[in-house]
Amino acid sequence: MLLDEPTNDLDLDGLDVLEDTVRRFAGGIVVVSHDRAFLDGTVDRFIELDPFTHEASMFAGTWRGYEQERARRREQQREAHDRTSAERARLLAQAREIQHQSAQGVAKVRKSGEPSNAIVFAKTQRAEGRGAKAVTLRARAERVEVVERPREPWVLAMDLMPRALGGESIASLTGVVVERGAFRLGPIDLEIGRGERIALLGPNGSGKSTLIAALNGDVPLAAGTRRIGSATALGTLKQDRTEFTGDEPLLGRFRGATGLALDEARTLLARFNLGADDVTRPCAELSPGERTRAGLAVLMARRVNLLVLDEPTNHLDIPAIEELERSLAAYQGTLLLATHDRRLLERVRITRRVTLGDGQGTAGSRRQP
């Protein structure tokens, strides 16, 4: 059974079913996944493809064990590189010093005014003999095989610091009802205070993305009111990543969303691994991962103080997910996070959980201790 990102768009119940299915399956399974909790619970062997050499390395064990072993191997390679490069540099420096001393010795003999040609010849031979040792040392240095330094993969470098933190009450939904065909969400009461870090939870179909759309003002309200504080800078990464679709080139769409100058926009997109060739492509040609990184770049450029993330780890690789976690840990604004990524929920500080009922369209909440 071949599974390519099977956890994307699954809720927690779906993840339980998937993991149980994988564990019970009697045949072999090859899975491509960036869901670390899923990998930890289901996989017993890892094949890592090097992004530079495109060679494969293997590890048997758990995901946590693989992370530790990968770090150990990289540290060993780094130490071997430092040791072998230092040894080669030492031999070459020694050879240069001896060669310098030899040349000085020959020059000194020639300037000595010694009348005996035999003595001059003997001293010159001794000085040049020391130079021959330098040749031997250089040959030894060339035979030292310098271990290649481990090449660092691209790492997402995010800084989500807000311009200002906003007022005490940053946003609210009061008695909000949203109707989409047969689906009805609400009535919902949700008060978001300054500095809160809210996890928005619930099964698929419970209305998490609809609630976020109501908060953004993207859908009409059948009832209730939406209020955004005057000092609130709201920024959202939508689950469907529709911010970057259509035929407009990425660079133009990004500049329109951020107001950045051309060079500033190119520089920031490059930090999200979207280079010169990528920024001229139509948005419709971007991969889901590229659209996700572009959306995060918009939020970073705008320095929002109410950050709303809807399944932000979908389509990101593991180094990018880990950098997102570090950025969220340092973020001082207000956070509303909808995710089924269990490891992300473990590692991001949450002050309150808001859970939407299965098909009920009602919200309950409790504060984290």
Highlighted features:
elongated, alpha/beta, 11 helices, 3-stranded antiparallel β-sheet, 13 strands, disordered C terminus, 369 residues, 6-stranded mixed β-sheet, single chain
Description:
This protein has 369 residues and is of the alpha/beta class. It has eleven helices and 13 strands. It has a six-stranded mixed β-sheet, with helices on both faces. Strands 6-5-8 form a three-stranded antiparallel β-sheet, with helices on one face. Strands 1-2 form a two-stranded parallel sheet. Helix 6 (250-258) packs parallel to helix 9 (288-302). The radius of gyration is 31 Å and the shape is elongated. The two termini are 42 Å apart.
Average pLDDT metric? 82
- CA-based shape: elongated
Number of helical segments with 4 or more residues:
11
Low-confidence stretches: 358-369
Q: In which order are the strands of the major sheet placed?
A: 9-10-11-7-12-13
Portion in strands: 15-25%
Portion of residues within helices: 40-55%
Largest sheet geometry: 6 strands, mixed
Termini Cα gap: 42 Å
SSE arrangement:
Blueprint: E1 2-4, H1 12-24, E2 30-32, H2 36-42, E3 45-49, E4 56-60, H3 63-111, H4 117-143, E5 169-180, E6 183-193, E7 197-201, H5 208-216, E8 223-228, E9 234-237, H6 250-258, H7 262-271, H8 276-279, H9 288-302, E10 306-310, H10 318-330, E11 334-338, H11 342-347, E12 352-356, E13 363-367
